[in-house]
Design brief:
The complex is a heterotrimer of chains A (257), B (288) and C (357). With 288 residues, chain B is mainly alpha-helical. Chain B has twelve helices and two strands; from the N terminus they run H-E-E-H-H-H-H-H-H-H-H-H-H-H. Chain C is 24% helix and 37% strand. Classes of the chains: A mainly alpha (257), B mainly alpha (288), C alpha+beta (357). Chains in contact: A-B, B-C.
Chain lengths: 257, 288, 357
């Protein structure tokens, strides 16, 4: 086994990567009030506790709403912009492309602060809407970049063929461009959902009464280590993993055909 | 090639129509806030009011008060340390995944490597608190093995912050380096061997230089995400030293001093921009 | 010094249950330009990889310069390769690439530079030494790859479809250049291609491979004019095949009987053997052809079904009475063949090759 050292090393790193996740999930089944050894479970009482905690459940629903809505807006705006820049000659196209992807290189903290100051100045009340606006700011560049990179010359030729055969512009978009780009649109949407779902600092800064799950978890942390926090965290983890696997299966099957 | 065909009239107007929503959004909720923040950083908070005459007072304060500039130095130290440790840990893993793992296992190995990425990012730091805190897994383990005589806490320290960060960025760098490694044509390796290079020299002269773009892209992302992150140090770092994002949050939350916070944010942006300019050459090299 | 640069002894290579090459015995003379020719999947690239050391054969031995190198790593073999995609290192300059092998030999810097310059001069690109790889055109890259491989002065140079990525005109030009360079340096070249025109243009010896076997081996003229097998006859250029039967053998003179009569030709065969008669399109002539000479054998009466002008000649497809497949035939530039024209087809028996059926 010449590769043994390499595999041992990989095993160690995997151990490091998985250690906190395993501890998190394991002690979510803790019986007693502190999620530290010795383990005295398994018990589902902390899952029960958080599912009957209205604030947590509401935050969960808020997170879903914000993630879905902001991702949908990001994909639509990103798609239109990508279509425009990839298919038309626009003056200063390179510059506009740079502008649209610029938010990727700015810390979320700075984006959050800028939005907070702006909303305060304009007197816009902090709500789920303001969180959603912030999430579109960070996800739009991502969606644009993903979709733009998938709009190759090959597709441009198919669109030209459709126009040549008499399709109107909206028909070209609906019948050729979107179906061809479907995997990219799908990937962009779900990546946005997971980013929004996980985002803390913007949601924290531009929210007040209605909060998303990460913000709720943050306030739960103030009470110190608590198996209920483990339960919420594990729940979020398992849901995300399920979504990732689903996405992977759908996209992977898509590629094969 | 296809781009140069003549286009129907009215194209350019339509193109702008498609582009406008995204541009407006970016202008209104990204550019405008940044501009407002830049202006704010030149204002001053006096008592409970904001003075709107232009001054560099906030920037002067940054260099005058150790409380401010030390948090930037802390941030830079932590970020550089995290970036280096993450590269050192990620490279061998990416290499193992790309070179030693049979290709049908690569996919599952990669998915496994980034699985913890899908825990919420607040929860990830909290999980490390569970592991590192007094009475936690590590402390318990050391007691059991007899390496320490009383419960110890590794949490609330710079080390804990670094561990929390490294955990995340090892996954990220593994991905960028792996992606770079697998897209290297196999024949580079063969050509090097053919011309007399053994495995070690092939790595030093060919493989490593050609994976620098992957390393640099990953390192840049690590730097940007790490230096701007508030959560990890807030949960794991304790109160003895603050990083720049924590200082910024304190200005907002405790003192509602937006001008000062804006100035600190502008400084953070400038640091990131300088690093970007420094790396720009490398970040484009992957087009080769 | 050994007269044989390369010797394959009973080489076999299988990947799992798939047999890539089987029981190959082949000797390459020092200084020869050898072309391994065949369709993809024929085993020629496998054989080249075995010679370069990138594959270890599952059976047999490989000798270079009389020494057994079967178990020696590519880095330690006196071979270098020009890869199909060139595999030029993108992070080094042209000079860095060409000098890489010398650097690996730990040659002092002072000795490296003249050798690099010399190698670059040989391919006519000395002025590009400082350039980066992505600044070069396809043809230039090809030459740099050649210079890099030759700089270390290998015993055998391997070329894996080196001209495959070039357009037709550049490819023909590079063929001449490759051959000229090979004659100048005198190194043994082993070149893999599926392009039979390329093979004929540059090879001293062509090795035709199919299905893991050597079908034929010899100088281009021999391979083309006297193919050893039906596969070679059809793979190398165009040919018309007729069924025949050997009725008598007298030394290497055969008496063959075919649909169009009995006649004598030269070739291998046994009495009573069923054979294929190979007639190249350019060896057929028609009754309307004025300047034909020699003994002509009438193959029969035919009707032109299709015709096309190829510049140097007219290519026609002719339906020959009593023959299944259409016959390919070349008519002179000045002939004006029309579809439906009928003509008589003649061939000189000395141009007809015979191969086992």
């Amino acid at each position: 086994m010449r590769n043994l050292p390499a595999f041992l090393y990989a095993g160690l790193i995997y151990g490091f990567i998985f250690l906190p996740v395993i501890v998190l999930v394991l002690f979510s089944f803790q019986e007693s009030r502190v999620p530290v050894p010795p383990f005295d479970g398994p018990s589902l009482k902390w899952y029960d506790a958080f599912l009957s905690d209205d604030r947590v459940v509401e935050a969960l629903l808020n997170s879903v709403i914000v993630a879905m809505a902001s991702s949908a807006v990001s994909v639509v705006l990103g798609f239109l912009a990508a279509f425009s820049l990839a298919r038309h000659r626009v003056r200063m196209g390179g510059l506009l492309q740079g502008l649209l992807t610029a938010p990727l290189t700015v810390s979320y903290l700075i984006i959050a602060m800028g939005l907070l100051i702006t909303f305060n100045m304009l007197g816009i009340p902090k709500s789920l809407l303001t969180i959603g606006i912030g999430h579109v700011v960070i996800n739009l560049p991502l969606c644009f970049a993903i979709i733009f990179s998938q709009m190759g010359a090959h597709q441009a030729n198919m669109e030209r063929a459709a126009r040549d055969l008499g399709a109107r512009e909206w028909q070209v978009l609906a019948l050729v461009t979107v179906p061809l780009l479907w995997p990219a649109l799908f990937a962009a949407f779900f990546l946005s959902v997971t980013f929004s779902w996980d985002e803390f600092i913007i949601a924290f800064m531009v929210s007040r009464f209605e909060v998303t799950l990460p913000v709720e978890i943050w306030s739960m942390l103030r009470t110190g280590l608590n198996p209920q926090t483990n339960a919420v965290g594990s729940f979020v983890f398992l849901v995300s993993v399920a979504i990732v696997f689903l996405l992977d299966m759908v996209l992977f099957r898509k590629k094969k055909t | 090639m296809a781009i140069d065909l003549p286009r129907p009239r009215g194209e350019s107007l339509r193109a702008w129509g498609f582009l406008l929503p995204a541009l407006l959004w970016t202008a209104a909720f990204f550019l405008l806030p940044l501009a407002i923040m830049a202006v704010y950083s030149l204002w001053r908070r006096v008592g409970h009011k904001v003075e709107t005459d232009i001054s560099l007072q906030n920037y002067e304060n940054f260099f005058a008060k150790s409380y401010f500039y030390e948090s930037l130095i802390n941030s830079l130290e932590v970020t550089v340390l995290v970036t280096f440790i993450s590269i050192l840990l990620a490279y061998p893993l990416a290499y193992t995944l790309a070179e030693k793992v049979p290709s049908r296992w690569q996919r599952i190995a990669l998915i496994m490597a980034i699985l913890p990425f899908w825990t919420s990012y607040v929860v990830r730091s909290y999980s490390w608190l569970l592991v590192l805190s007094e009475g936690g897994i590590i402390s318990n383990f050391l007691l059991d093995v007899g390496l320490s005589s009383e419960p110890i806490s590794l949490a609330n320290s710079r080390s804990a912050t670094v561990i929390g960060f490294v955990h995340f960025f090892v996954m990220l760098l593994t991905l960028t380096i792996f992606a770079n490694l697998v897209q290297l044509p196999k024949n580079y390796r063969r050509a090097a061997a053919d011309l007399g290079a053994g495995p070690l020299r092939t790595f030093i002269y060919i493989i490593f230089p050609l994976t620098l773009p992957g390393i640099m892209v990953g390192a840049f992302l690590t730097f940007v995400l790490c230096i701007g992150d508030f959560i990890t140090p807030a949960i794991l770092g304790g109160k003895r030293e603050l990083l720049l994002p924590q200082t910024i949050m304190l200005q907002i939350e405790r003192r509602s001093d937006f001008p000062s916070a804006s100035a600190l944010a502008m400084i953070l942006m400038m640091v990131v921009s300088m690093v970007y300019l420094g790396c720009a050459r490398w970040l484009r090299l992957d087009r080769l | 010094m050994n007269a044989l640069a390369v010797e394959f002894r009973a080489i076999g290579m299988s990947f799992g249950t798939k047999v890539a090459v089987k029981d190959i015995n082949l000797s390459v003379q020092r200084g020869d330009y050898v072309v391994l020719l065949g369709p993809s999947g024929g085993g020629k690239t496998t054989l080249l990889n075995i010679l370069g050391g990138f594959l270890t054969p599952t059976a047999g031995r490989v000798l270079i310069d009389g020494a057994d190198v079967t178990d020696i790593a590519p880095a330690k073999r006196p071979t270098t390769t020009v890869f199909q995609d060139y595999a030029l290192f993108p992070h080094m300059t042209v000079a860095g690439n060409v000098g890489f092998g010398l650097k690996m030999q730990s040659l002092p810097k002072a000795e490296q530079s003249p050798r690099i310059a010399q190698a670059l001069e040989m391919v006519g690109l000395a002025h590009l030494a400082g350039r980066r790889i992505h600044e070069l055109s396809g043809g230039q890259r090809q030459r740099i790859a050649l210079a890099r491989a030759l700089a270390v002065e290998p015993t055998v140079l391997l070329l894996d479809e080196p001209l495959g990525a070039l357009d037709m005109k550049l490819r023909r030009q590079m063929q001449e250049e490759l051959k000229a360079i090979q004659k100048r340096v005198g190194t043994t070249f082993v070149h893999v291609t599926h392009d039979q025109e390329e093979a004929m243009a540059i090879a001293d010896v062509i090795v035709v491979m199919n299905d893991g076997f050597i079908e034929d081996l010899g100088p281009p003229e021999r391979i083309y004019l006297r193919p050893a097998s039906r596969f070679t006859a059809t793979f190398m250029g165009e040919s018309n095949l007729f069924d025949g039967k050997v009725t008598a053998v007298n030394g290497d003179r055969l008496t063959v009987e075919a649909a169009f009569g009995q006649f004598e030709i030269t070739g291998p065969g046994e009495e009573g053997q069923e054979v294929c008669l190979v007639v190249r399109p350019e060896h057929l002539s028609s009754s309307s052809d004025e300047n034909r000479s020699g003994r002509q054998l009438l193959l029969g009466q035919g009707r032109i079904e299709e015709t096309g002008f190829f510049g140097t000649h007219h290519q026609c497809l002719v339906q020959l009475a009593g023959h299944g497949a259409l016959i390919r035939l070349r008519l002179p530039q000045r002939a004006a063949p029309q579809i439906g024209d009928s003509l008589e087809l003649f061939a000189d028996p000395s141009d007809i090759a015979v191969v086992p059926r």
